[in-house]
Amino acid sequence: xxxxxxxxxxxxxxxxxxxxxxxxxxxxxxxxxxxTEPATDREKIKELFPNTYGxxxxxxxxxxxxxxxxxxxxxxxxxxxxxxxxxxxxxxLFDALKSANEESRLFGFLKGPGGVIKGQYKELTAELIxxxxxxxxxxxxxxxxxxxxxxxxxxxxxxxxxxMDLDGLVVIGGDDSNTNAAVLAEYLLAEGSKTVIIGAxxxxxxxxxxxxxxxxxxxxxxxxxxxELIGNICRxxxxxxxxxxxxxxxxxxxxxxxxxxxLQTQPNITLISEEIHTKGITLEExxxxxxxxxxxxxxxxxxxxxxxxxxGLPEFIPDIKAMIDELSSILGRDEEYIQRLGVHxxxxxxxxxxxxxxxxxxxxxxxxxxxEVLLRRDSHGNVPLSQVExxxxxMDLVSNRIRQMKSRGKxxxxxxxxxxxxxxxxxxxxxxxxxxxYCYSLGFAAVQLIRARLTGYTVNVQNLTKPSNEWIAGGTPxxxxxxxxxxxxxxxxVIRKALVDLEDAPFKKFAxxxxxxxLNDEYVFPGPxxxxxPPEISDAPTKTLALEKDEAIVPEAELVGRSS
Length: 564
Ligand code: FBP
Hints:
Elements: H1 7-13, E1 28-35, H2 42-48, E2 56-62, E3 73-79, H3 86-100, E4 105-109, H4 113-118, E5 121-123, H5 126-132, E6 143-144, H6 151-164, E7 168-173, H7 175-190, E8 196-201, H8 219-240, E9 244-249, H9 256-265, E10 269-270, H10 273-278, H11 283-299, E11 305-310, H12 318-340, H13 344-354, H14 357-365, H15 368-373, H16 390-407, E12 417-422, H17 424-427, H18 433-451, E13 457-462, E14 472-477, H19 478-481, E15 482-487, E16 490-495, H20 505-519, H21 535-538, H22 543-548, H23 556-559
Parallel strand pairs: 3-4, 3-6, 3-7, 7-8, 8-13, 9-11, 9-12, 10-11
Antiparallel strand pairs: 1-2, 2-14, 4-5, 13-14, 15-16
Helix pairs in contact: 3-5, 3-18, 8-9, 9-20, 11-16, 12-13, 12-14, 13-14
The structure holds 1,6-di-O-phosphono-beta-D-fructofuranose.
């Protein structure tokens, strides 16, 4: 029995993603450039990656003399949180492999890196791929957050790859997963394995970007999905005129998602964690600022508003950050013991004795559910921020502050807050044309890197604000992007996370306008993602990307009615 699908689903299955010019031909070759180095910690990284350190940049260009097109066996794995477009990376891999040689085979490892370690996979056939073209989610082969890091994991991978006669593995993941891909590449090279490892930059958080990687895939779709919802809430707020909406957005440590959504929708308040950290703004000051905007708006007769807060905020408020860092070191030492303590109060008591006096005070002031979440770390050592209800914490603290102000006759504001969290809704959305095209191109380009026998690279596609035929594909050695960071109390090599830069155009644009947005209702309503129609609407990149690449953002009104 065939599954019922919507008309839009059917139309999207038939969408043919666009490729950069150099990838549309079989006459493709990989050109190698100058050797590379990381920006910092060179000696340490060289010591840890003796075989893959210093590899050259790679560019995929049109031309004869490219690598042979013998059949290849390639594996693919989806690692970490879902990001729209993952299935298109796989479709791109499949089509590139088959167009060069019908005998090539693609295998999908199941449930993330754990499937690679356990050797659990399935062959991806044309029928299966066709069911998932341009779809959201990672359900074709599922994802997971296991980490390939221990010696026994690396050895198991080598054994599995040899049994599968695997020429290459593509790891679709974020900064941590691409780092682990580099560790695996280094190990396999040292062991004489023929399997090469290529990473693909995935994460809705938008924090895997640098001079070579212009954007991680999924960011575009997730931000557009959240922006539609925020716009709808702004419209509801101005209709009901009685609620303050506190919206927390996913995005882990970095505030790129919050900033992009702010640029798209212009809510009254958007907190940017990186600014709070840089300026050393305390929780009390944040609460006072929000209460002041609530008061000033109420004086203008507006007892409503919309606030956006990035989920990473707690890690950037100086007092809370210092406390989280201390907790991480304690957990690095005593995690098992702490988790074995059955009762919450016992854990608090234990930690109070081990945290500095100041951090113990901060920890004890937090609600119990937040205290518990802060004791968890994922396999990469990250606090599971998506479970910290920061919007509720802020709602409570601002309510108290407004009450205080009222009792002192300082405000008449009516403050009725509602909390929202937009996260998982955006991670598996149907990819925008931008993400569909970008991901398909990443998959296609990854095959060229494998054919060129490159290993320890992240595939990249640049020039993303131009039409896709002008995009440029290549590969970036992972060692070039590494630096040493302390995780769980230990210095380890990781790809440097790109946080919001206060000197960059997206933040400056936001900062120039926020005072007006706070008091006036200058909300913008982006509406739902458009998959068909004028490319200025349906293929447009994020405002972040356009501003970073210094391209003027065409006002929404000017787009309407224009055709390609
Ligand atoms: P990645 O970093 O793996 O891309 O995941 C991104 C993310 O969606 C974060 O924004 C969020 O904090 C986290 O995953 C949630 O993790 P989980 O899926 O384990 O709940």
